[in-house]
Each structure stands twice: as C-alpha cells, then as structure tokens.
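Re: Re: ligand-bound prediction request (bumping)

Still looking for help on this. To restate: I need the protein modeled with zinc ion bound, output as structure tokens. Inputs repeated here so nobody has to scroll up.
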Amino acid sequence: MTSTEGMGLERVSTERTPLRPTRQRTAVAEALASVDDFRSAQDIHDLLSRAATPVGLATVYRTLNALVEAGEVDMLRTEDGEAIYRRCSETHHHHLVCRSCGATIEVEGPAVERWTTAIAAEHGYSEVSHALEIFGTCGSCQR
Amino acid sequence: MTSTEGMGLERVSTERTPLRPTRQRTAVAEALASVDDFRSAQDIHDLLSRAATPVGLATVYRTLNALVEAGEVDMLRTEDGEAIYRRCSETHHHHLVCRSCGATIEVEGPAVERWTTAIAAEHGYSEVSHALEIFGTCGSCQR
DNA sequence: CGCTGTTTGACAATCATTCTCAATCGAGCG
DNA sequence: CGCTCGATTGAGAATGATTGTCAAACAGCG
Ligand SMILES: [Zn+2]
Ligand SMILES: [Zn+2]
Ligand SMILES: [Zn+2]
Ligand SMILES: [Zn+2]
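Reply:
Sorry for the wait, this slipped through. Here it is.
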C-alpha cells in the first residue's frame, strides 16, 4: 500500500532474464497503484503523458504484460475485447466490478474453487484453470 | 439437434426488426450446428467459402452478433481477445473447454449462481450478472 | 572512459472487427 | 407476372488495439 514499495518490481520474474527496474517500468507500476479499478493500456499511457513522466505506448504494453506474467497485476477483457489491467493481491481471487463506474472489489470463494476442479475432474479434464468475473451496479451508481 | 431444425432462426428476435431468414443467415446457423466447439467468425467464414455457400465476412459477423443478441449462441473470448462462438442450449450454463482441442462441455452450477448473487448483494451491487469459464486439457488430449 | 547486452520509443505492420454504400434481393401488390 | 421499396449483402476502406522493427539511449562493468 506504500505507493511503489512492496510491488516487487525490483525482483519481477525470479526466473528468466531478471527485469531491470527502469524509470518507465516504475512509472507504469505507480500509475497502476494510483488507481483502484481496471484501466486499459492506453489509459495508463495517457495518464503518464499527462503527468511529467512520458512513457512510450509500446513500453506500457510490454511492462503491463510482464507484470501480468509475474502475477503482479490481473488482466481481463471488456465486453468488446479490450484488455484492462489492475494491481491486485497475489492470492487467487475474483472480481466484483461495477458496470457503470468500474469500482472493483476482490472476492474469494472456496466453494467455487472446489466446484470447478470437481467438475473438471469429473469430465476427465486436467490442468484446470478458470475465469470468473461478477458484474453489477454498485451502491453509489444506484440512485 | 436435428441440424437446422429448432434453431429458431425463422423467428430470431421476437422483438425489434424481425430478421429475415436468408440463405446466408441459414448457412451461418448450419455451420455453427455442424461443429460442437467454439469457432471464430473467421473460422466460420472459411468453413463456408470452402463449402458451396460463400458468405461475406461482414455478413458472418453481423449474423453471429445477431444470434448472440437473440441468445441463440454463446460468445466468449480467447486468451488473446478473439471472439469465438458456439451454438448452445437456451438455459444459463457455463463451459468446460479443452485448451488444446477446444472440446466443450456445458455445465451447470446452482451453487455458483447462488454464491455470485449473494456476494454481489452483500456488497450492495444490483443487476448482477457473471461470466465463468473453466479451461483444462480433455481426456483425449492428455496422453 | 570504451564494451556489450538491455531497454526504449517513434513508427510501421498485423489483425480482428466495423463501417460504407452501391448492387441485389424479396415480399407484397396491382 | 412485373414493379416498388425497404432489408440484406459484400467488396473494400476504415478503425483501433496490440505487436513488431530497429536504431538510438542506457546501464553495469572492467
Ligand atoms: Zn459504480
Ligand atoms: Zn477462482
Ligand atoms: Zn454455452
Ligand atoms: Zn482436447
């Protein structure tokens, strides 16, 4: 929660080529940390050009993907297929997203986890993973 | 299950502008009926040009979207954001998809339905909907 | 300082999807 | 039938997100 601290950017990808914590990579991480809902790569890019830390669009995409790989951020797709990103907790969870303002809440559901693996096994599927998002209208957007 | 019978294309969209069952619209519906896994719009288009019933790409997209609107087909997105479509049962369900060959199984989970609405209500979200897909490697693709 | 592998970013290239719009179709009508 | 008019089609252009290119800028190191 301390801005960039603990984001683990300094040690992204414990395997492979250890990424170097450059100015632009930090900037992207900070931008993500400064908002609490999902944003598109272009949003982040705009946000950074508006501020005093311009970062090339290509770099924003590269960094975002690296962060997703590293499990530092969650990525999901809007109705029309655009990728949106959000800084999330490291543990497995799902999202309750406001369809109107984008307010996001992380939720956990052991029952769901159990159910999906059970169903998959039941049908002989292995290496199971799943994607679950809940959409609705949040309290503030209601009235 | 009887090829095109009961696909409801003849009465798509009971509201709005009642769509006319044209040659190309029927062709797309049949193409979808002939496969049992998810296919991209381009796949359908190729499939139709290969056969003796060419249908313009734009029309394929238009028809597919119409069918989705009408709730006749399910659409979901691949990892890289491409839209894929599948003829499905009318009732609410989820998908267990083979990551390798695409084999799809429709599954139901009352528990999940209950959980999502409960969680949403708990956080003051209304007009709740959700998206859940399960991915894995099917039995045949295992060995 | 020079050397070398990494990172960047302006710009071009991809690619799925949508838009345009003139040509074609088809159901109802005289 | 043959005509009319809105619905439909499709070739090709346009859009827009994402990725690829590659030369220039950088960073750690001897
Ligand atoms: Zn809201
Ligand atoms: Zn889960
Ligand atoms: Zn389905
Ligand atoms: Zn399979």
